[in-house]
Design brief:
The chain has about 190 residues and is mostly helical. It has helices spanning about 5-45, 50-85, 165-185, and strands spanning about 105-110, 115, 120-125, 130-135, 135-140, 145.
């Protein structure tokens, strides 16, 4: 089985799970409304608790029947869709069910993502944590690589001392001060 068909199968499975989750959410909401209405109407009308339970059982039976019929219709629709897709090569689907995110100016992939490789095959990015996508640029010499902008600053330190021995005594102090200033500058970036 090719990587493209694996990706298409995974996309189909995700679509199916999304549809089923939406169906379960809808069924739970409907069930909650039916329960609330049954108890509210029974309290308001003063019905016996046995009558409320019978009414509730009838409504739940009705819901189960409707749900089974809808599931059958959904399966039939899915079968027809699969048949049409196989006849026409899945036209319009392309294995992608969500909006496309462009990375022309770079970005970060936070979850595992499949992508086509030049020359065939499928790559996987973000499988062990976030990964950066950086656009490549061709340099003047023709080499291809990631463009780096900015650069380090040059800092000049001038020390004036009347004698060489005084400088030698303060050298470690001055070196420590410079190192601390550089560290503070790096933390502020």
């Amino acid at each position: 089985m090719s990587d493209t068909s694996d990706l298409s199968a995974a996309s189909g499975t995700l679509d199916s799970m999304t549809t089923k989750t939406a169906g379960l959410t809808s069924a739970a909401t409907t069930f909650s409304k039916v329960m609330t209405q049954a108890f509210s109407s029974s309290v308001a009308s003063g019905q016996k608790f046995d009558d409320v339970l019978k009414s509730l059982a009838l409504k739940m039976s009705d819901l189960a029947t409707k749900s089974a019929l809808q599931a059958g219709a959904g399966a039939m629709s899915s079968s027809i869709s699969s048949l049409v897709s196989s006849l026409f090569g899945g036209a319009g689907k392309a294995g992608v069910s969500s909006p496309v995110k462009a990375f022309a100016s770079g970005g970060v992939i936070g979850t595992p993502s499949y992508f086509p490789m030049p020359g065939g095959g499928t790559g996987l990015a973000g499988e062990s944590g976030p990964e950066a996508i950086m656009p490549l640029q061709r340099a003047a010499d023709g080499s291809l690589g990631v463009a780096v902008q900015g650069g380090g600053n040059t800092i000049h330190v001038q020390i004036a001392t009347p004698d060489l021995d005084g400088f030698r005594r303060s050298e470690s102090y001055v070196t420590g001060q410079i190192a601390r200033a550089v560290a503070r500058g790096q933390r502020s970036l």
